[in-house]
Amino acid sequence: MTKIAVTGAAGRMGKAIINATMTVPEAGISGALERADSPFIGKDAGENAGREKVGVKITSSADKAFKDADAIIDFTMPEASLEFLTYAVKHKKAVVLGTTGFSHHQREEIKEISQKIPVVMAPNMSVGVNLLLKLVHDAAAAIGRDYDIEIIEAHHRHKKDAPSGTAIRIAEVIADAVGRDLDKVAVYERKGIIGERRHDEIGIQTIRAGDIVGDHTVIFAGPSERLELTHRAHSREAFAQGCLRAAQFVVRQKPGLYDMSHVLKEVTRDT
Q1: What are the structural domains, with CATH classification, of the chain?
Q2: Residues designated catalytic
Q3: pTM of the predicted model, to two decimals?
Q4: What is the DSSP secondary-structure string of 207-254?
Q5: pLDDT of 207-234, one tens digit each?
């Protein structure tokens, strides 16, 4: 059994991961972490997630939450994630990192940490989104140089970072496929008299509204036609199930930085 510690255990994603873990015989909750001022400290992690009790109380101590875990699943904020990674190194635990919004410097720091422990880092853990990345790459390689490319992402009103980490990853994959420097061609906002669209632009547009779990659409628009590739998450369960796959993968790996493509390759090989 893979024993899992969840950070942000009382949040939307934390509760989804706990719920998913309780449906998988091969995994179990061993720790649940929340910030010190959380009103959920001391509550049973399973019961707080709307399930039966699991005998694990939510704590504000990373040492206590991580002590008995095989893998830590973290969906919080960049600064908190980096702090949790230091505790993971201290306890020699594998990590599944789904937090988004890291700066370039923070990403480099994560690479250094992954030389000490195995880390799966991905902006989106769902199987469907990672298949979308492959489809987008293939489409961009085939027609992207001749077609205008736009990415539209939509999330719930509480999401703090924009664009989404998934949208940025999609843009990176496209830029790589068409041989462009994303830093030079990405357009995140349009307003006023902006002039004609540059041929090499990769547009990334953001919507924040209601309780949208996560939608991503890539548009390849050419003369007389357009191709649209879309992924829509109906619930956080898709992300949570992907996290469990990643956790079961990462505990078997040597120190290093992995992504969901490594996880899915192993799943395909095993089946």
Answers
A1: 2-121+236-270 (3.40.50.720), 127-233 (3.30.360.10)
A2: 155, 159
A3: 0.79
A4: EE-TT--EEEEEEEEETTEEEEEEEEESSTHHHHHHHHHHHHHHTTSP
A5: 999 999 999 999 999 999 999 999 998 8
